[in-house]
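[#protein-structures] MJ: dropping Putative aldo/keto reductase here for a structure pass
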Amino acid sequence: MVRLMFAPPWRSHKLSVFAWHPADAAAQTPGPPASSRGARPARDATPERAAQPRQPVTLLSAGTHAVAMPQLGYGVHQIPAHRCREATLHALRTGYRAIDSTSVDDNEPAVGAALRTTDVPRNEIFLTTKVCNDRHGYDQTLAAFEASSKRLGQGAVDLLLIHGPCPQQERYVDSWRAVLRLRDEGRIRAAGVTNFGIRHLQRLIDETGEAPAVNQVELHPYLTRTQLRAFHAEHGIATQAWGPLARGGRLLRDPVVVAIAREHARTPAQVVLRWHLQHGNAAIPKSADPARATQNFAIFDFELTPDQVAALDALDRGELTGAAPATTT
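AK: finished. structure tokens for Putative aldo/keto reductase:
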């Protein structure tokens, strides 16, 4: 029997996207135990939060049930720690309800501080963090999660990702078993990976019988990863894009992207993020600039035409801005 965390139907090995509102989460989704929240400091002093659009959500396979993850999230990777708390608070005020953190940049304390001071209830926020690549191995992964949990000030998180396969270490399967244990013990709601290629994913499935709920990879119109996304679809793995804007480089100046943006009176970044959503990809754009973070969220009130989606698809050139899975260390 499949137990739904949210209302829409779930089918085995199929990922669905549907409209979601924070009220749905508050009504239907249990948050972390009260003991995980700690003493609450003064709340965010900003008096108003943005009115909430109905956001699309991806359903994640989580063992015996499904977990809903907002399709558009906010990433804090490489945001300086001294700016990260306010950047996260601004994202929450804007309407983002998925926050993607990592221990790599020492940002977890700032994210945790934002979660404790925001007036957004914790059970409306989907929190992700990651096991660093120097913490592979069963016991090391369990210890890494405990350290992240302490830095975040959260007894539980919604999604835990293994940050890369590090194939030269040959320990990512052991790490995966540890992440599954944390899920089964209720410390995390869903288990996933980052930067895994098909062979890495297949090995996890072959050796443990479970596919990750999410594979977070670099993905954008210059790098569409059609084979990997097809593998994800076959095995019920959600695709989540880091660097969804190709790190703000040439892609946002590409004549095709610029022309489509003009047709919709939108920014190039909004067009690319809309492309992600219409493909069913989850995406975690990052910007420490409040105006850009707000613009990136304003993508739920327009749609690209099929021809425009196809034109963006045709930009694929296999262009990586980060490390390939086989070389991720």
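MJ: nice. Confidence is low (pLDDT under 50) at residues 1-23, 25-40.
AK: one more thing. Residues 71-244 form a domain with the TIM Barrel fold (CATH 3.20.20.100).
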